[in-house]
């Protein structure tokens, strides 16, 4: 979907709201961990007591920006300013936020920017976020934005109109080679996540494996999924390969 807007009108509509909006505090990725967060130096990256340390994180709505769009939104010469490190080394929640404007001027006033910058800009939402914006965002894996809807991003210095790049991020798991060998999976495979919590236990299928030798074992689910299973109060989290269908076809 492509949107055409009067940028002057949009800026007049939201500029004052941006000035009044304070960036939200707290971690960009609330999470539950299967093990204590203390690793032995002799273990593979992220491992505890000789096995992977599973972390399940809620990936709240956020956006990724190009260097060009950072300068347009926040002023010439601007760069992303790290605020809080994320669990994956080298990635961070930036101090900067943007306002997102959808069809019929529906808005999300303060969406966190994550760094570092990328080759293309992308907005990742939960289903309820897309409803609020009035955008029919498809479920896609990060980077697969061809044919997706667009939106308008508004910063303190300017606006950017995205012709595509708005998605509902599909659930996935980051892991390194040691983790993949432990679970017997490879990059691109699908896994199953089981979460036990009082009256809200759930099983999530189709968790995409994203293997990288520098990654630590971490599942990303969105805000709606995290609320549905009451992740903050989870007593157990388990990750396993997707069960294979039996010979009978069931």
TrEMBL record:
The keyword Ribonucleoprotein does not apply. It is an enzyme of class 2 (transferase). Residues 20-45 are annotated as: Disordered. The keyword Disulfide bond does not apply. Keywords: Acyltransferase, Bacterial microcompartment, Metal-binding, Transferase, Zinc. GO terms for molecular function: acyltransferase activity, transferring groups other than amino-acyl groups; metal ion binding. InterPro entries: PTAC. It comes from the Bacteria. Residues 20-44 have a biased composition (Polar residues). It is found in: Bacterial microcompartment. Its cofactor is Zn(2+). GO terms for cellular component: bacterial microcompartment. Its EC number is 2.3.1.222. Its main location: other. Belongs to the PduL family. This is Phosphate propanoyltransferase. It comes from Allorhodopirellula solitaria. The gene is pduL.
């Amino acid at each position: 979907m492509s949107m055409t807007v009067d940028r002057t009108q949009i800026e007049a509509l939201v500029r004052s709201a941006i000035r009044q909006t304070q960036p939200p505090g707290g971690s960009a990725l609330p999470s539950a961990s299967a093990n204590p967060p203390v690793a032995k130096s002799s273990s593979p990256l992220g491992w505890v007591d000789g096995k992977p340390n599973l972390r399940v994180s809620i990936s709240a709505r956020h956006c990724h920006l190009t260097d060009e769009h950072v300068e347009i939104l926040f002023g010439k010469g601007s760069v992303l300013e790290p605020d809080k490190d994320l669990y994956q080394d080298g990635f961070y929640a930036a101090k900067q936020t943007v306002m997102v404007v959808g069809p019929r001027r529906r808005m999300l006033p303060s969406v966190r920017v994550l760094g570092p910058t990328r080759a293309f800009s992308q907005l990742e939402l939960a289903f309820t976020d897309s409803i609020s914006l009035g955008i029919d965002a498809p479920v896609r894996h990060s980077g697969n934005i061809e044919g997706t809807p667009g939106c308008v991003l508004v910063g303190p210095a300017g606006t950017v109109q995205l012709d595509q790049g708005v998605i509902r991020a599909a659930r996935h798991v980051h892991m390194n080679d040691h983790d993949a060998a432990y679970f017997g999976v490879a990059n691109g495979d699908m896994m199953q996540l089981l979460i036990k919590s009082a009256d809200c236990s759930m099983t999530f299928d189709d968790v995409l494996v994203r293997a990288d030798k520098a990654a630590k074992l971490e599942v990303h689910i969105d805000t709606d999924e995290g609320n549905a299973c009451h992740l903050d109060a989870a007593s157990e989290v388990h990750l396993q390969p997707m069960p294979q269908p039996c010979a009978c076809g069931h």
